Amino acid sequence: MSIHENLLGGPPPTHLPDDPGPRELLASGATPADVAARYPTSSLAWARLADEAFERGSVVESYAYARTGYHRGLDALRRNGWKGHGPVPWEHEPNRGFLRALHALARAAQSIGEQEEHERCSQFLKDSSPTAAQVLG
Fold it and tell me: How far is CA 68 from CA 9, 44, 50, in A?
């Protein structure tokens, strides 16, 4: 039995491939806008843009950035075998951009009164990674 075998018979965890470029640029002090422009498929860059916008009170802008990061992440997950459900572990660092964007989308949706979307995204985050829901919550 492998360490990654799912004993409940559900889908295996999805582990996105590592793309260290955006993460390294952000860590070196590059702005999320510059990173998103250079790496437009990076959910992490879009999630960081969403966080910045939310912190300054630009909730609609945060929502738009988060939605972009979320959809970029869904695209990446599907390209890597995800079938619309199953674990997306927080413990695998390349997954964190998507999970952060999903959290940011839930937060912004709640702030603009989109309660159904907030609930859907919050549940999706919990279902994908209980650890992410706890860390980001």
Answer: 32, 10, 9
